Amino acid sequence: MSDTAVSTTYSELAAQLVARTDQDEWGSVRPSLYETARVISAAPWLPGEPRRVTYLLEEQAPDGSWGEGPEPYRLLPTLSAVEAALAVLRRGTTTAEVTGRLAGAVNRGLAALRTLPAAGPWPDTAAAEILVPGLVARINEQAELAATDGTPGLGEWHPGPRARVPGGYHEATPAHVARRYGSAGSLPVKFHHTFEGLADHIPEALVAEVPGLLGSSPAATAARAAASRAPGATARAIADLEPVAERYGGLFPEAAPVLVFERLWVAAALSRAQLPAATLPTLRKWAERLYDPRGVRGAPGLMTDADDTAMAVLVASLVGRPRDPAPLDLFHNGSHYDCYIGEDTGSVTANAHALQALDSYLRQHPGARHTYGPRADKLCDWLVGVQRPDGQWPDKWHASPYYATERCVTALAGYGAGHTSAAVDAAAAWTLETQRDDGSWGVWDGTVEETAYAVKILLAAATRTGHPLPTGRPHSARALDRALERAAAYLEAAWGPGHRHPALWHDKTLYAPAAMIEAEVLAVREMLRTRHP
Fold it and tell me: What distance in Å separates the CA atoms of residue 328 and residue 153, rounded to the nearest whole number?
């Protein structure tokens, strides 16, 4: 295929992706087993339960567990599914066949839970310290009731030993959090997204009445309605949940809609190659609508956060509509940015995005260097300081270090002076050394998503000074070229329309934002094509 044809294909595919993303009012994520099971448990009054129960049964793995990823990531989905299956069994509303299947699923799920590591290590997913012990308590309660109240299909069933809270989690955490904020008189917004983990402990009056989904979460919304005594609470929840179920085939993702987050990441990814002219009107519309001087939130009902705010500032600059980075001041803590107010663990990717946003703004407004230059310099130092000894950066929003490392390298290579060279070099060396035999990269298995990030690390490092990197290390320009050639061949063979991306992103469990991943891969393939004029 000629270079012109390939380039035209990129422009067409990028324009099609932007158009699809613009037309989708919810977001290109798959349903969540965890979230759907929580809705099953809390909302028997919501139409469409048979579809959700069938989904729960179909998604159980041969080993009895539920969820995606390696064993530690399967803990929370399995807890959620077992508890939901027990709730449905105790309601006694299913056919004899489905009842039998649910009973078998419960037994296999409990057995799978007993085989999980006793003490992790567990992934840093959203509010796991609340959700895990809360579900263990609910399973034990449901199991004891099912064993004594003649639940249909279970006969003389006995659940076996009580489920135990895994090491690293604490049984009292949900009640402790509830008491803490009960005495304060209100529940912070940061807990709304995972409210289902606190619903058994939080008085209804502590949760502010908000329109739409609570914390952008179907599970939280269903849990609030189930716990509410207010007139019309169930009807309002049905009105909020049914449109989401319609979009996702009767099932539920962990956040809805995700259009702010999705559109900003799609625009930023495509800009790394080029922004086809046909996409600019839409991307500029996004930039103008999504920027907010009060800070940007990734979805309705969530807190404003530094990550989405930084990306809104960055995208505005990339599409020729620069906006002031001042909203980021809300999150600055003196050396770097907290992702949101009240954050427990920091995010390197949010800070890398903030550095990119500041850099892009300063390139277009050099007169603002006295305001934002010192802050960007401190941010460079902070990012370099948290790099792992082997050259990678991990982050709480993604299971793969290739995502966080790419974000940090892109930011440091674009802005940093000579003092960031060693960090960029180390990241490039780590990337070269961890390429798989088939040309891919991946934390568990090779994936097109992680391969795209790895390619961007190498390209950013190599173009930082105009010479192949890593400087001063035993990696030649030929080795770099060979790694990129193998990556290009892998991407050509592995990626195509309808490709199902493994779930690597962190929310309550793992998820895969398809449009964002597609934008990354499209851009990287174009970057590889145009690397050598």
Answer: 56
